[in-house]
Amino acid sequence: MANARGDQSRPAVALAAIFAGIVLGLAACEVLVRIFVNPAQHYDRLLMIAPNYALGVDCYPAENGTGMLIDLRREEDRELFKQVVPMLKLASSGSAEFEPALAPLKNPIPAERAIDLLRDHHPSDLMQVRVRSYAQIGANIDQIWGEFKKAMAENQRFHFSRVIYVFVLNDPYLVPELAAHERRIDDFMNVRWSRWQRQPNAAWAALAEASKVSVLADLLLNRVLNTVVRRSTIEWYLDIFDRDLNPAIIPTFNRIAAMRDEAQRAGIDFQLVVYPLIYELKNYPFDRIHQTIASLAAARNISMTDLLPAFVREEQGRSLVVHTIDSHPNSLAQSIAATATARFLRSLPKGGKIK
């Protein structure tokens, strides 16, 4: 009888030993990771913006030994920022921690003003351009159409001679399935790291909670999720321009052609400029998308230029994004885009001042 009880207890002892071994192994890995690995920086960015969205500053965690451009936890930076922006609100999941008291400017920067494009990059006799922007943050094709109509309504005031639509790869109309996919990708993005705790997948949510206290869990989460994000995002962009998976791509380019037609009826030239995604330009996964755009534009006689070759040529190993947690193009990327666009515009037939 005693032997029978001993035989029955052996599996439990073995399981306990296995569990203890796993716990000790994880603890040892945690210690080693804390000693030898620099944890990834994946905090939410802090965005400070004026109420009318005319001016703002993104604040990022320190990276590669450098500090933030502006750190609102420092009194001197808060004082400096008071001189730049009239009235601010904070848009961040952790905004309360950084709440500064900001004084209004005596002479705020006007929200609407014309600028000289590339004045510092090209001799003034080659190109003097006055530009009025109708861009909106995160605009989709419907919002772009609305801004275009606003520009046409203001044509009598500004006397435009050219409209330039800078097309980015997430502008098109989306079928509902792809729109839902986009929202899932947004929740996966590192710039919204705090949203990991909201994931419906219990394993992801548990790992995200563990990453708050465990560097090992943090490292695993960062590595695995970056792979998931990359694969899911590439797939989503490719699907947008697949006519079978997203039939809405056709009305997208019909709408762009309608912009061209309305501009031309008003005596205004219309140009489409395609801005690539700043991602692995030397081994670019979206070449097929650019070919599709060129085909759809050519079928509708839409004049266009693609900035991808300029980016591939000018990258030269330099970073073209704002930060590792924000893949928006930085000032160098914008300079490359502006220079290539200006070169394209100079190649077009002269039609007086471009506005």
Report the strand count: 10
| Largest sheet descriptor | 3 strands, antiparallel
In the CATH classification, which architecture of the largest domain applies? 3-Layer(aba) Sandwich
By CATH, the topology of the largest domain is Rossmann fold
Q: List the helices and strands in order.
A: HEEHEEEHHEHHHHEHEHEEH
- Described by the principal axes of the CA atoms, the overall outline is elongated
Per DSSP, what share of the residues sits in E-state strands of 2 or more residues? Answer: 5-15%
What average pLDDT do the residues reach? 71
Q: How many structural domains in the coordinates?
A: 4
- Flag low-confidence runs: 40-46, 48-56, 61-69, 84-129, 190-194
**Multimer state:** single chain
Overall helicity: 40-55%
Class by alpha and beta content: mainly alpha
CATH homologous superfamily (4th level) name of the largest domain:
SGNH hydrolase
Strand order of the largest sheet: 2-1-3
| SS element count, helices | 11
CATH domain class of the largest domain = Alpha Beta
Distance between the termini: 97 Å
**What Rg, in angstroms, do the CA atoms define?**
26 Å
